[in-house]
């Protein structure tokens, strides 16, 4: 028994923020942003993470005509939850108004969240415990941006993508997930909460803004992206010629182009959507998958690859 992706749905906010919009609030310009990131615009949400996730699930259910009452478990990958508790997955389940009490929980592996989620789903399906699982990546990153920091503020956008995974005789072939210690604090999002009790010293984690060291992130991302893509094809006795397409985490065009150059793969094999969406963290791969699903045929082999805060990274090989 394998875990097969049956279909995908997405939610992208209507509010599009162009590079020109950023020039009105900070010292930057369109050419500077495009040259360093490949991003021309991104979407900011006026609803919370759970509502975006819910809308992506509704889109998925509409696409598949799948009966929501047959959902056995809901997993949401996010680093931008509405609250510490309840989880985003709990809230999505509530919004769906399901008649049964099914398990629902979140996974936080930052931008690698969707790959980590696939690994969990793969295990649950292959074990025979579940047959119908909803996996969602949903992120509300615009709420964590420091608009005085042009090096990070221009990178991120909001959105959600959802997939239905079922037991089948084909599907996910292999998924590898890893974690490298972030010794130098390359990527960090403090919780922004003052901790104060009658029995402890007051502590403050600092403002809840995304903090990144660009060069450290670039070195980490390019290295693990190249290594993971090589590892997954060699481990499964394949070559890149056997792969229909590769969907990388949509972080930065320079990272993707560097990996393409080092691997010697045709750029057309890579699915790239960040120009108009920016970095949507754990939502980037399912949203990108939604953009090409009509081009896929049964039996096509795909690779997903991601890297993010933690420092987490992972890769998944599957058959459509």
Overall pLDDT, averaged? 95
Tertiary shape: globular
Rg over CA atoms, rounded to whole Å, is 19 Å
Low-confidence stretches: none
Task: List SSEs in N-to-C order.
Answer: EEHHEHEHEHEHEEEEEEHEHHHEE
**How many beta strands in the DSSP annotation?**
15
Distance between the termini: 15 Å
- Decide which structural class fits the backbone: alpha+beta
Q: Count the DSSP helices.
A: 10
* Strand order within the widest beta sheet: 1-7-6-4-5
The proportion of strand residues reads 25-35%
Summarize the main sheet: 5 strands, mixed
Brief sketch in words of this structure:
With 320 residues, the protein is an alpha+beta fold. It has ten helices and 15 strands.
Describe, in plain words, how this protein is organized in 3D.
The protein is α+β, with helices and mostly antiparallel strands. It is 32% helix and 28% strand. The protein has helices at 19-23, 30-37, 49-64, 88-96, 113-126, 150-153, 214-235, 253-263, 274-277, 284-292, and strands at residues 2-11, 15-18, 41-44, 73-77, 104-107, 132-140, 158-168, 172-179, 187-188, 194-197, 200-204, 211-212, 245-248, 301-308, 312-319. Strands 1-7-6-4-5 form a five-stranded mixed sheet, with helices on both faces. It has a four-stranded mixed sheet with strand order 8-15-14-13, with helices on both faces. It has a two-stranded antiparallel ribbon with strand order 2-3. β10 (194-197) and β11 (200-204) form a beta hairpin. The longest helix has 22 residues, at 214-235. The two termini are 15 Å apart. The mean pLDDT is 95.
